[in-house]
Automatic annotation (TrEMBL):
Listed InterPro entries: Nuclease_put_TT1808, Restrct_endonuc-II-like, Uma2
Name of this protein: Endonuclease, Uma2 family (Restriction endonuclease fold)
GO molecular function: endonuclease activity
Keyword terms of this UniProt record: Endonuclease, Hydrolase, Nuclease
Keyword Transport in annotation: no
Every Putative restriction endonuclease domain range: 14-180
Length: 184
């Protein structure tokens, strides 16, 4: 099998799995591996709600997207991910595509779970940096921390600031407010 057929096979497998999943399940392609993610639990969704609520309260000019697909550079077939939260200018995804270029995305957030923690901490971190997304917020429930990665350079972020969950995390401009993780 040549490389071109392998790429088509990964994309075809991704599409086939995506089409066959029950409601609430997601499929992502991260660094050449297909990840099937079960529906989130209540604690996960409470954190998503709190993050989006604080953005709504502090930054009414920005839209809060949950469940939006992003196409990230990297690997022979690229990466297709669905961040738990994406913050971007309103209207950034006003089309019928399932996966979008991350142009204009200011922040993505992931909340770890047993099934996603490893890819949230490694593959997605590299993918979001490679895509040039300015800020990556990782809510690591296992480590009990909230970490803001910023200043993407290549496959890494130059700056990293962490607080214990229940602490306050300053989100620099253009986000410009303090995220209170006390409700997480």
């Amino acid at each position: 099998m040549n490389k071109r057929n392998a790429v088509a096979s990964v994309e075809e497998a991704f599409d086939a799995i995506d089409a066959s999943l029950p409601e609430g399940w997601r499929v992502e392609l991260i660094e050449g591996e297909i990840h099937v993610v079960p529906p989130a639990n209540g604690e996960h969704e409470e954190i998503v709600s709190e993050i989006t609520g604080q953005f709504r309260d502090h930054r009414k000019d920005l839209a809060r997207y949950t469940g939006i697909g992003l196409r990230l550079p990297g690997g022979s077939s690229g990466n297709r991910v669905i961040p738990d939260v994406a913050i971007a200018p309103k209207g950034s995804f006003a089309d019928d595509q399932e996966f979008h270029a991350p142009t204009g995305v200011l922040l993505v957030a992931e909340i770890t779970s047993r099934s996603t923690g490893d890819s949230d901490r490694k593959g997605k971190l590299r993918g979001y940096a490679r895509a040039g997304i300015p800020h990556y917020l990782l809510i690591d429930r296992e480590a009990d921390t909230a970490t803001l990665f910023s200043e993407p350079e290549g496959e890494a972020y130059v700056r990293r600031v962490s607080v214990k969950l229940s602490g306050k995390l300053e989100l620099p401009e253009p986000l410009g407010f303090v995220l209170d993780t006390g409700e997480f």
